[in-house]
Every structure is written in C-alpha cells, then in structure tokens.
Design a protein that fits this description.
723 residues; alpha/beta; GIY-YIG endonuclease; Rossmann fold; 5 domains; 7-stranded parallel β-sheet; 6-stranded parallel β-sheet; 19 helices; 31 strands; globular; binds adenosine-5'-diphosphate; binds zinc ion
Length: 723
C-alpha cells in the first residue's frame, strides 16, 4: 500500500493523505478524484515534503487512510506549474487549493458531473476469472460509463472494476474526442517590418528557447508592438512550443483573434469567461496536451497547464484589470513573470505606458527594455492640448466646452471619426432631491445609485443592486424634485445627439459591449465608417486601431486625480495617454483635447508636453520618498461582516495583535474606502513595510495567531492596486 498526498480544490485545507492501491500509478501532478467526508473532490497528487508553510498536511494513521476513487487520464500537471501554485498561495496568503482551482476548473475534467472518461467491455476474457468479475462483466454487457456508473450498474466494487481494466477486460474510451486546434502557420502572412521592429523582433526570436528572460516592450501607441511580439510567437511555433498572450479585457480578445488569424492563417485558442462550457473543456484539454500552440486569453489563462510553454506575452501590461480583486487577490502580470521563471522561458510585457513597477525592474537591471519610440508607417503622435474649463466652461447643463464643440463639428464636416472619453458608465453618477438634498444610495453599499437611463433604472456599480427610478423623493415624498447630477457617458451622448442630430453615435462601455460578439460588431461598424462619434469609458482607451479616428476629447481629466489613491496620478496619466493614442493612427494626424480645471497639475503638464519621461521621473521620486511601492511594500487586510459591531471588534483585535517591528507599520483599522459593500461592514488595516521585509511570513504568523468569529471574514490583499 502506498500513501499519497493530495491537494484538493474547493477547500482551504492543506494537502491530505490518501491510500493508493497497488497497480495504480499516480506520480505527483496526477489529477485524481478522492473522497472528503461524503463528497467526491477533485485534487492533484502533491509532492512529498513540499514545504510551503501555507499547507499543513493532516496526518492520519495508515489504517484510517481512504483510497482515491481514481485518476484522470490527463497529463500530470508539470512540476513548474505545481511550484507556481505553491508560490502564488504563499505570496498572496491564499489557500493552495483555491489556486489549483484556477489551474483545473471543474469543467476541464467533467461532463455533467461525471469524469469524461468512460469504460466499456473489450470482449477479452480476463486470465483470472472470479465469480465477481464474471457477474460484473455480464451486467455491464454492452453498456459504457464511468467507473462509478459501471459500479452502480453491476453492483461490483470499483476495485473489482479496476482489476478488470488491468486485466484488459474493460477499456477506457475518450468521449467526444476533442478535435485538435488548427496549427498556426508562421509563414502565412509575415509583415514587412520597419527597421526598429525588425531589430526588436530579432531580439525576441533569439530569446525563444534561451531560458528565462523578462522584457519590457515599451513602444508608443501605434508603434506596432503587436507585430513585433507576433514574431516571437512565430518563432515559438516554429520550435513547436506553446505561447500564451494575456489581454486585459475580454472585449479585446475578439479583435486580437482576427488580427492573429490575418497573420497566422487560423485563429488561436481562446480562454476567457465568455466561452461555452464545451469550448472551455476542449480548449483546456488542447492546452494540457500541448496541441494548442497559441492561447489568447484573459488573466486566468496564465494558470492553464501548458504542456510545453515557450513564451508568455502580457499585452497592455500596465492595466489595472490584471489585478484580480476577488478570491485569490493576485496580479496576473506579476504571477506571469513567476510562471516564466519556473518554466524557464522569456516573457514580454508590452505597454505604451508601463507601470512604475515595471520601469523600476528595468532600472534595477532585472528586465531588459526594448523601445519602439515612433509610430509605425510614419504616423505621428497626436498633438495634445488642454482646455482650461475655468476659462472655457461648457454651457449650463452641458459638458462639452466650446473649443471641443468646434473641433467635433470640423471632424463631422470632414467625415472623420471622433472619440469622447469619460470614465463613467450610465447617465449620471448621482440622483439628488432638489428640495431636501436627499441622495439616493445603495442599500447594501456606501455608494450612490447610478442612473442608467437607457435601461430605465438606477444601479449600484459595486454590488449590482438595481431599482426603478423613483418618481417621488424617498425622503420628502415630493414629486418631480429628483435631479440627475454630473455626467455619465449616456448623458454626454444625449448632448452630442442634441447638438448634432445627424451624427451617428455609439456608446462603448461594459454595458454595451458585454460580449465578444458585441465588441466585434462595434469594431466592424467603426471600420465601415458607420459611426461618427464614440462616447466611451476606459474600455475604448486600449488596443483599438481606427485609422479614420482623428479627434479625442477627454470630458473630465480631473476625475481620477481626486481621492488620494497611491496610483491616482499614474492611472490618470496612463488612461489619458492611452485614449490619446487612439487618435491619428492612420495617415491623418490626430488631435487630443483634454478638459481640465488644473492644467498645471504635473500629470497634465507631462501629457501636454508629450514628456512621459518627466512624469515617470517625478512619480518615481515621490514613491521613493514615501517608500511606497515598488520602493516599499503594502498589504491590505479587509475585515468584514454583516454584523457591524463584530467587524469593528475583530478589526481592532487584529490591529492590536500586530507584531512590533521597526521595518513595518500598521495603519488603521479604519473604515475601508467602501465602508459597506454587499451588505457587509468593512474595516481595513494597511501594512507598510520596507522593500525586503519578509511580509508574508510575518503576516501569516500574525493572522495565524488571531481568532475571529465565523461571521467575520478576513481577506488579505498583498500589493493592493487601489486602496
Ligand atoms: P501598438 O500595439 O504598438 O499600439 P499596433 O501593433 O496596433 O501598435 O500597430 C499599429 C498599426 O500599424 C496596426 O494597424 C498594425 O497593423 C500596423 N502595423 C504595425 N506594424 C506593421 C508592419 N510591419 N506592417 C504593416 N502594418 C503594420
Ligand atoms: Zn451596492
């Protein structure tokens, strides 16, 4: 009898020990089904002696060990991936089983709750025939099913059935044999590269199969970064190795799939939450078998079990959406670098506005920077101009200032496209009673209800709570006293329609582009010239390439700067630089107008001067002075409960138990920025430590020694993005 250690998904328990009956092979990495209490659980055979502190295996005597139900006939998860799971759990203070769950989502292995492998009789008589065996074979007859199904049919134990499999009397049949994905052809339509592109791609090509190396591909918007990293992908394909390209939004995958197809002759494998169950399963299996040579997907594609990984690309690597804010709070960009390290392959982080963190890695000599300083094909970067709203205010009740109105009119006359950027979904962010001053708030969150006029409802952007727009003020019961305050994209769209009734407009937000198909339709309409003015949120700031788009107007450049968030300046800079980068990408020059009340703020000044180096230098200095990331470390502890008193008490107790250290400060507890979210009261502790402080170890010991009632939830966010 052998004892194996199994890491289970769907539980916060560490690896547990099981019995492995003779004759069954289950080396580390093998996916297995095991009992846990009355349940059947998916797990992965784990390495003996793996030392991750996050995992304390429960020790059980040999006689109490339960046998595993069976193994899945899938390639075992490679060692590099098991190490990544441990690293991620360790770094983000998360249960390893929750990370394993991202690697092996249930759908990957199961079909309607059953393992996808079924068995049937071969007709061969086993050399040693027992009464149990012959009865089982007789009852099974011509039918097929999983081991468990067959056990139910025949009344035989699964051990008997496994004996029959070994004896060759039962054989496995793969259901719905997955059709292998088409092979991308590196020679299908190679582009003629510019000199800079050729030099950059030569560097990437020679990095394939040369071990771990992180690159920062820093190229201005429209410089042709995609074509360059496609050449690295082409080289990986030539060498028979798998590549994965991570994108920040599902909406961007569709245009990317088409672009990939134009270059390589067929679509790559996609991975995102918009896939059908059967597609997910087929794609997962093609990735695990090594047949899928190129995968394009959202952040979760990073955790897939590539059999033969050769290259990772993170496009728009500065994007906040790579940070996962639920469950395991991981940053896909950072975990991707670790994956490349464990797999010993190159990784390319591509961005026109790299994160301060990535730049710091270049400065420290850990990442190699490859620059593309000019736009491809002689296109010039757009001219950026500020409109000082104090001097050029819009009309009353309007949001578009006179200079921007003039430019928009000109574009309409010339038949060119324009884009108005406002990072606010809906019609108005606040509904207020003009008589009593009452503000309509979400009952579950510390947040205003946002009016969505097109959908005829108010909606909370944090918990999804919706209500019909009230006719009476809920407070003073007056009729017709509620007014919409402030603009959202729908309201700006109304203003555009009122001003230019003939203009064809499109609103682009996650409300309107909720599926890849809708996103594809939008791109088609833009390319066909069926849209004159786009009004959009951050969703339109990245990736898109519309040659006839020559004007970008930023409705409120100051939105992001208030609030004192560590990344406020950086995020504003990136967002505005990215949206500006949508203008003038073809042969017509682009122009960008930024509406602001503080044109002298450093962010605006750098944008207007086109001097990103100045912005990065100033921001880096500020972070260094305050010992803020990446020159110091942060972690947030969010303590929440539906019971306000319990949440506050637990937060205070955890704060009071913080260890004393000259290299670590603990701030709080204070009410979290969203003091109430989904009906839970939230308190926050912020931990600030020196760069090389063993933050995880200290926090694990600290939190491990604390206790809190079951109704209190404690979530840790290491390297929080916004707070
Ligand atoms: P970035 O990602 O750097 O913003 P893109 O990769 O989207 O830039 O390239 C901008 C535009 O230039 C795209 O339409 C792309 O197809 C085109 N382009 C880039 N490089 C080439 C090339 N070598 N040959 C032809 N077109 C190119
Ligand atoms: Zn809410």
């Amino acid at each position: 009898m052998a004892r194996i250690r199994v890491l289970l998904t769907n539980t916060a328990l560490g690896p547990l020990d099981y019995r492995l009956d003779p004759g069954i092979e289950a080396p580390p990495g093998t996916l297995v089904e095991v009992p846990l209490g009355p349940r059947r659980m998916l797990g992965c055979v784990w390495d003996e002696g793996s030392e991750s502190a996050a995992m304390a295996a429960e020790s059980v005597g040999d006689n109490r060990l339960r046998p595993i139900f069976g193994t899945y006939p899938m390639p075992p998860l490679p060692l590099e991936l098991r190490r990544l799971i441990e690293w991620t759990a360790d770094y983000y203070l998360a249960p390893a089983g929750a990370v394993l769950r991202m690697v092996v989502p249930g759908v990957a292995l199961r079909d309607g709750g059953r393992p996808i492998i079924e068995y049937r009789a071969t007709g061969t008589t086993p050399p040693r025939m027992t009464p149990q065996r012959s009865e089982a074979l007789e009852k099974i007859g011509e039918r097929q099913g999983s081991l468990r199904d067959l056990a139910d049919m025949s009344g035989a134990s699964e051990a008997v059935l496994r004996g029959l499999i070994k004896a060759g009397a039962l054989e496995a049949i793969a259901l719905s044999p997955d059709v292998p994905p088409p092979l991308p052809d590196p020679a299908f339509a190679p582009p003629a590269l510019s000199e800079e592109q050729a030099a950059a791609s030569a560097t990437f090509r020679s990095a394939i199969n040369a071990g771990f190396q992180p690159f920062l591909l820093d190229g201005v918007t429209g410089s042709g970064k995609t074509e360059v990293y496609f050449e690295a992908v082409a080289e990986a394909i030539r060498q028979g190795k798998q590549s994965v390209i991570l994108l920040p939004e599902i909406a961007l995958t569709e245009p990317m799939l088409r672009r990939f197809e134009a270059r390589f002759g067929c679509a790559p494998v996609a991975w995102h939450s918009g896939l059908r169950q059967t597609e997910r399963r087929a794609n997962w299996r093609a990735i695990a078998s090594g047949e899928a040579l190129v995968t394009i997907g959202a952040r979760s594609a990073l955790f897939l079990p590539y059999a033969n990984l050769g290259l990772i690309v993170v496009d728009e690597a500065h994007e906040a959406s790579f940070k996962q804010e639920d469950g395991v709070h991981y940053h896909a960009r950072d975990v991707a670098v670790m994956r490349a390290k464990f797999a010993d392959v190159p990784i390319i982080l591509a961005s026109a506005t790299p994160a301060i963190e990535s730049r710091a890695q270049v400065e420290a000599g850990r990442y190699r920077e490859i620059q593309l300083p000019a736009r491809f094909g002689g296109a010039t970067l757009p001219a950026i101009r500020a409109i000082d709203l104090r001097n050029d205010p819009p009309d009353r009740g309007a949001w578009i200032s006179p200079p921007l109105v003039a430019e928009l009119s000109e574009r309409l006359e010339r038949g060119e496209q324009s884009l108005l950027f406002l990072n606010r979904r809906g019609y108005a962010p606040l509904t207020l009673c003009r008589t009593c001053g009452h503000r309509i708030e979400c009952p579950n969150c510390t947040a205003w209800m946002v009016e969505h006029r097109l959908a005829r409802r108010l909606s909370c952007h944090h918990c999804g709570h919706v209500m019909p727009p009230p006719r009476l003020c809920p407070e003073c019961q007056n009729e017709d006293t509620l007014v919409a305050c402030g603009p959202g994209v729908e309201r700006v769209a109304d203003e555009v329609k009122a001003r230019w009734p003939e203009a064809r407009t499109a609103i682009v937000t996650s409300d309107t582009l909720w599926s890849p198909a809708r996103a594809a339709e939008f791109v088609e309409h833009m390319e066909a010239g069926m849209i004159d003015i786009v009004i959009g949120t951050q969703l339109v700031t990245k990736g898109y390439h519309f040659p006839n788009l020559t004007l970008v107007g930023v409705i409120d450049a100051d939105i992001g700067l208030s609030g004192g968030d560590l990344r406020a300046s950086e995020r504003s800079f990136q967002q505005i630089a990215q949206v500006a980068g949508r203008a003038g990408r073809g042969d017509k020059p682009g122009e960008v107008l930024i509406q602001t009340r503080q044109p002298e703020a450093p962010v605006m000044a750098a944008l207007i001067a086109g001097d990103s180096a100045a912005f990065y230098a100033a921001e880096t200095e500020a972070r260094k002075d305050a010992r803020m990331p990446p020159y110091g470390r942060l972690a947030a502890i969010i303590i929440s409960s539906e019971d306000a008193v319990a949440a506050e008490r637990a937060a205070k107790a955890i704060g009071a138990a913080a260890p004393d250290s000259p290299d670590m400060e603990v701030w709080g507890p204070v009410p979290a920025p969203l003091a109430m979210l989904r009906g839970r009261h939230r308190h926050r502790l912020l931990v600030h430590a020196a760069r090389n402080f063993p933050l995880q170890k200290v926090m694990r010991e600290w939190l491990g020694a604390c206790e809190w009632p079951a109704k209190v939830r404690v979530a840790v966010d290491v390297d929080p993005y916004s707070f």
